[in-house]
C-alpha cells in the first residue's frame, strides 16, 4: 500500500515530538501518514517510542511539539472521549461488575444512544466476534481469549472509523494468539476500518499489516509493506529485528552498477547488493535470510555465491530442518530447509559447500 500524502491521510503525524522530562525525546520528529482503511502496525523493541505514539493519537499523552490530525482536523487539544476512537488493550480493560452486554452498551450510553438502538448495536458487535451467547456473563466467567473478543467488540460497537490496539494479544497463548490475528485481520477487511496496531512481535506485524513502521530510538527506521520489510530491509537494525538473519561482517572492496564485492573478516570475498554502503573501504554487515541458503548443489540458483561451511548442529523440527554452521569464522550461521522426500540428514563436523543468489545478500551499514 502506497503511503498517502499528509493532505490525503486519514491519520497524520507532522513533526511530532514527545519528551517527558523536557530534555530527552522519546519520539523524535515523527512524520507519518496513514490512509483510510489501512492496517498499520507500529513495531519495535521496548522503549522505541511506538506505544507513546499510539497514546498521543488516543489522547492519553500530549505531543510536546508538532501536530496530529484525524480526518483532516487537528486533534491535539481534543480530549480522548471526543475523538471517536475505539481502543483495545492487552489487559482487556473490561468493567468486572458489568455483564458482557453492559460493557458493550456503556460507550453507547455515554453517547446518548436510545436503548433499542443500543441493544441492536450490542447484538451486532457480539455477532462479529462470535460471542452472542455470552451476553449476560461477567468478565470473570470468561477465558482470556473470550475476554479479548469482548474487548474487541466493545471497541467496534459504536462504529468508529479508527481503532487503536496496544499489544492486544500479548496475554494469550501462542495458538490462540495466532487464531486471533486472523480474526482481527478479517474484521478489518470486512468492516473497512482504519487500524493502528502496536506490537513487539515481528510475526504478528508481518501477518496482519498493510504496512509496518519499524521504530527504534524514537524514530521510524523503515516504513514498508511486510514483504518489502522482510526482503529489502533498509538498514542493519531492521534486518536484524525482522525475522531471523545471518550476519557476515566485512569490508567493501569494490562497488558499482548495483553490486559490490565484500571481503569478509575471515578473508573470503563474496558478492552482495549494496543498500546503504557507497564507498570502497566501508565496513559492512552482509545480511542473508536462512531460507535463502542452499546446501544441495542441484538446488543452488544459477550464478550462486558459494562458500565453505562446517556443520555444527542439525535439528529436526518436523516440517523443516534447522542447520547451524560455521561459516567464515562465524559459529551462528543458520540454514532453514524444508523437510522434503529424500533429503539427507547432515552430520556434525561434516564439511559442505553452501550457496545463495547474489541478490539475496544485502550489504548494510554497521
How are the SSEs ordered, and which strands pair?
Elements: E1 11-19, E2 25-34, E3 39-43, H1 50-58, E4 65-70, E5 73-74, E6 85-89, H2 100-109, H3 115-128, H4 144-156, E7 162-166, H5 174-191, E8 194-199, H6 202-208, E9 211-216, E10 219-224, H7 226-231, H8 236-241, E11 246-256, E12 259-264, E13 269-274, E14 283-288, E15 305-316, E16 320-327, E17 330-338, E18 351-356, E19 362-364
Helix pairs in contact: 2-3, 2-4, 3-4
- Class based on secondary structure composition and strand pairing: alpha+beta
Kindly report the average pLDDT value: 92
Figure out the total of helices: 8
Specify Rg, calculated over alpha carbons: 24 Å
Number of strands: 19
Question: Can you tell me the overall shape?
Answer: globular
Beta-strand content:
25-35%
- Give the helices and strands as they follow along the chain: EEEHEEEHHHEHEHEEHHEEEEEEEEE
Sheet with the most strands: spatial strand order: 6-7-8-3-9-10
Helix content: 10-25%
Largest sheet: 6 strands, mixed
What distance separates the N and C termini? 29 Å
Taking pLDDT < 50 over at least 5 consecutive residues as the criterion, the unreliable ranges are none
Amino acid at each position: 500500500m502506497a503511503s498517502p500524502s499528509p493532505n490525503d491521510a486519514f491519520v497524520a503525524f507532522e513533526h511530532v515530538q514527545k519528551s517527558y522530562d523536557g530534555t530527552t525525546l522519546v519520539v523524535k520528529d515523527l512524520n507519518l501518514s496513514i490512509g483510510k482503511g489501512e492496517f498499520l502496525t507500529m513495531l519495535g523493541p521496548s522503549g522505541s517510542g511506538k506505544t507513546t505514539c499510539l497514546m498521543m493519537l488516543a489522547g492519553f499523552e500530549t505531543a510536546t511539539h508538532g501536530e496530529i490530525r484525524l480526518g483532516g482536523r487537528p486533534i491535539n487539544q481534543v480530549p480522548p472521549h471526543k475523538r471517536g476512537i475505539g481502543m483495545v488493550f492487552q489487559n482487556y480493560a473490561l468493567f468486572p461488575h458489568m455483564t458482557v452486554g453492559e460493557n458493550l452498551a456503556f460507550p453507547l450510553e455515554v453517547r446518548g444512544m436510545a436503548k433499542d438502538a443500543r441493544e441492536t448495536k450490542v447484538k451486532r458487535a457480539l455477532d462479529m466476534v462470535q460471542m452472542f451467547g455470552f451476553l449476560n456473563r461477567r468478565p470473570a466467567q470468561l477465558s482470556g481469549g473470550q475476554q479479548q473478543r469482548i474487548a474487541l467488540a466493545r471497541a467496534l460497537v459504536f462504529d468508529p472509523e479508527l481503532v487503536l490496539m496496544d499489544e492486544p494479544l500479548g496475554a494469550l497463548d501462542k495458538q490462540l494468539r495466532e487464531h486471533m490475528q486472523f480474526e482481527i485481520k478479517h474484521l478489518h477487511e470486512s468492516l473497512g476500518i482504519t487500524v493502528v496496531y502496536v506490537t513487539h512481535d515481528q510475526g504478528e506485524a508481518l501477518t496482519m499489516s498493510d504496512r509496518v513502521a519499524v521504530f527504534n530510538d524514537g524514530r521510524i527506521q523503515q516504513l514498508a509493506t511486510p514483504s518489502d520489510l522482510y526482503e529489502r530491509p533498509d538498514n542493519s537494525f531492521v534486518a536484524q529485528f525482522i525475522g531471523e538473519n545471518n550476519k557476515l561482517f566485512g569490508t567493501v572492496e569494490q562497488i558499482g552498477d548495483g553490486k559490490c564485492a565484500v571481503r569478509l573478516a575471515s578473508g573470503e570475498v563474496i558478492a552482495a547488493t549494496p543498500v546503504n554502503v557507497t564507498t570502497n573501504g566501508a565496513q559492512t554487515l552482509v545480511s542473508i535470510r536462512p531460507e535463502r541458503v542452499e546446501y544441495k548443489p542441484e538446488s543452488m540458483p544459477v550464478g550462486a555465491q558459494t562458500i565453505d561451511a562446517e556443520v555444527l548442529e542439525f535439528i529436526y523440527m518436523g516440517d523443516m530442518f534447522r542447520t547451524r554452521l560455521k561459516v567464515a569464522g562465524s559459529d551462528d550461521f543458520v540454514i532453514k530447509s524444508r523437510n522434503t522426500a529424500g533429503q539427507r540428514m547432515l552430520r556434525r563436523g561434516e564439511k559442505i559447500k553452501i550457496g545463495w543468489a547474489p541478490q539475496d545478500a544485502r550489504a548494510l551499514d554497521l
